[in-house]
Amino acid sequence: MIRISSQQIFSGGINRLQELNTSLNNTQQQISTGQRVNKPSDDPVAAARILKLDQELSRVETYQRNVDLADNRLKQEENALSSSIDVIQRIRELTVQAGNGSLSANDRRSISSELEERLGQLANIANTRDASGEYIFSGFQGSVKAFEQDPSGSWIYQGDEGQRVLEIDDGVTVPISDNGKDIFVRVPAAITGEHSTVSTPGASISGVKLVNEADLAAAYSGSFPDDITVEVIDLGGGNPPELRAFDSQGIALPVDPVVYESGEPFTVAGVEATITDAVPGAGDVFTLKINEKQSVFGTIENLISGLNNIDKSSPDGQAQYDDLIANSLINLDNAQESIILKQTELGGRMNAVESTKSFLEDSSVYSNEIRSQLQDVDYAEAISTLSFQSFVLQAAQQSFAQVSQLSLFDRL
After folding, report:
1. Are residues 114 and 173 located together in one domain of the fold?
2. How many Cβ atoms from other residues are within 10 Å of residue 143's Cβ?
3. Which of 121, 149, 196, 408 is the most exposed place for a label (fewest CB within 10 A)?
């Protein structure tokens, strides 16, 4: 025989009402938050998967911010390089104009004045800063101005040779900066000649230019081109003087023509030059500078100085001026080519950033869809469940109210 006390009836009824009320509250919370899982106990398996998806989405968001930063930095650098090419192109046009033999000294000074303005404009571009105020061409030293003028007025690079990189996905990094030294300073210079050992006053070398790049490459047979030394040799015995040429290792290079004639051009390793007024056997040594580098700023500064100071009234002055114009044009073309190569490299980086950006967006969409399936509530189902739970709770409350009024004393 089982005995049921009034206390048991009340306890059981209250517990049942609390359970129904808890279920009702949970359903109401799901509807109000729009989430099916509000705490791990709602669905432990789904809660664990949602936690992993949240971590994945957080990772993707971090990389998306990095992608946006990389994209902005690369676009800013690309715009700066495009602007610098425009400035150099205008300087090149002025250089061609300066080569016109009919220009007066005032005309040359006028061109020189505009060149000074363009030089300052190019320096401002090279000192471009990003949104945070850092100089984009200073390497790791973003707070240091990339180019500053020294006491002589020459523009000198102040940064380092660092290159910043940014991780835009797991194991995927992309360079987001380039130092100004590689872009604006280490520019291949025109091949020039100099009188390295002066024994004969008035002896000079001029008209130095590359006429056959293949011959230059072949002359060094795999080694990197370096300076070429040229001497005028007196063979004696009534034989005409000859030219001798050697590379930096002392290896002889063929000269054509080998016989020396003052003022007549000759070629060695694909480079043409002209030696004038050298005395055979006197010990004059000339050097062809093959692998020189020159800052684009130095090229423009030398051009400005030459326009203002070279006296064209003498044959030597005219030859010096002509060499200045020719070499400046070569150096400016090399500077443009250097920048265009960097732009091509930037294009590859920007494509990589764009591809990663699309991948991260797709990953975010997919993760959000899976998370939504696990987390988001089905409102139609939830509202239907809420109505049913409200009905059950109301019925239980009414039933408990009636049962709670029963007593064994009513049967006496």
Report:
1. yes
2. 11
3. 408
* R_g over Cα of the chain: 41
The CATH code of the domain that includes 118 is 1.20.1330.10
Give strand pairing partners of 286. Answer: 195, 230
Is 356 in the same domain as 258?
Answer: no
Number of H helices, E strands in the chain: 8, 13
Other CB atoms within 10 A of residue 202 CB: 11
**C-beta separation of 202 from 316 below 8 A:** no
- Dump pLDDT digits (tens) for 257-298: 999 999 899 999 889 999 988 888 888 889 988 878 889 999
Same domain as 272, residue 201: yes
Q: How far apart are CA 25 and CA 23, in angstroms?
A: 5
User: 85 and 196 in one domain?
Assistant: no
**Per the domain annotation, does 368 fall within a domain?**
yes
- Which residue spans within 18-131 are E strands per DSSP? none
What's the domain range around 271?
192-292
Arithmetic mean of pLDDT over the chain = 83
Q: Which helix (H) or strand (E) holds 266?
A: strand 265-268
pTM: 0.73
- How far apart (Å, rounded) are the C-alpha atoms in residues 275 and 257? 13
